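Suppose you are handed a protein chain with no further information: no name, no annotation, nothing but its sequence. What can you learn? This example shows the usual starting point.
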Amino acid sequence: MDSIHAQSYAKIVENGVQAIEEVNRLRGSGYTKEDIYVISHNQEREDRIVDAADTNEVGMHEEGLFGTIANLFRSRGDELRSKIVSLGFSEAEADFYEKELDMGKVLVIASRTSS
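A reasonable first move is to predict its three-dimensional structure. Written in structure tokens, the prediction is:
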């Protein structure tokens, strides 16, 4: 499922290689490093993909101070849904994407709301 909003785009991919390919495709279409995020249910995997793709992780700039602090006390699933919502998606979309992440997939998001 791809989701395109006025400001946000998301695509579920099967693995890190596909995530890097999607990041490169998004860069080719005009998105910058600061616009692109990679999310995985496994934090170490997410970190490796973010480093390899030279892109962003969702942080305080996107979630705000309180959202970032709250994530310290949330389950990984709740944290991921919060991050997805902070990038301009609805709760229902965040639930869908988080379930896909549970199955080992990777989410690539391009969002100009971070600018």
